[in-house]
Design goal:
Radius of gyration: 19 Å
Structural class: alpha/beta
Number of helices: 9
Helix content: 25-40%
Strand content: 15-25%
Shape: globular
Strand order of the largest sheet: 4-5-7-6-8-9-10-11
Largest sheet: 8 strands, mixed
Number of strands: 11
Length: about 325
Amino acid sequence: MDSEIQYELPGLIRVHKSGFVERLQGTETSPPSPSGDPANGVASKDVVLGDPASKVSVRLYLPSNAAAEPGKKLPVVVFFYGGAFVVSTAATLIYHRYAASLAAAVPAVVVSVNYRLAPETPLPAAYDDVFAGLKAVVAACRPDGAEPWLATYGDVSRIVLAGDSAGANLAHHTAIRLRKEPIEGYGDEVRGVALLYSYFWGKEPLGGEPADSAVRGRFERSWEVACDGKFGPDHPYINPFSAPQEEWRQLGCRRVLVTTGELCWFVERSRAYAEAIRACGWDGELDFYETKGKGHVYFLFNPDCEDAIKDLAVVADFVRRC
């Protein structure tokens, strides 16, 4: 390995002058469980969806009771994992565990979509990848779809986008894009969008955010690496509040869930998001849930604690109502 380091995002990645990218988290993975996970009975498998021109790699999750009622369809959660756009995959252990738990809790078919990571492939590649993932899921849920789990059990009329941190950012922008670019034969909205501990930021502090330039600079540097400097800290990709209200009103879904933690780095952004969606004239239902005393995506690292179980129940209940 080249020992000369070009730059580092502490705790995330270390980029060497040779171009080698060393990932410092998100590398602990879990294989799929085609026969069912002993912990919750959820079966999982890695598949490729889409046509030859736009193949999308995903991990599918099917709850154990999917076939309990012949002909019954389940909601489909299209899930986007987090990781600041630079780490993690659908196979990353914490995300595999969360997606399986969500599939069991709803119950739902969960599709965890892989997307290309920066800095090798900077944004907007991830936005394109997850939108292609949504289109591929819609196609696969049709009766003649090529993927049997989705064709048999997936209810194409009950698709929910969900994601945590950077994945929540992706979910928001996918819903915005869907309204602008309807999917042929499907339409321009999903049933719901669940934004979990969303990764949004901006040049100026919002509410009680830290004003210290060193603190804000670390987040700005992370965003700069994710997009290779193409989009500034107030671009709508990272700061949706810079987009016109008309765009917010066009959010392509009927329901939105926003969850956050009192000690999350981005809590002020999540609170402001909930306020903005209420104020913009969007014609839909909003749920907001904040966990006291908890930091950013704590539930991924301590999934069995009481608060994490409640957090999961909130998301599962939201999906069931969509």
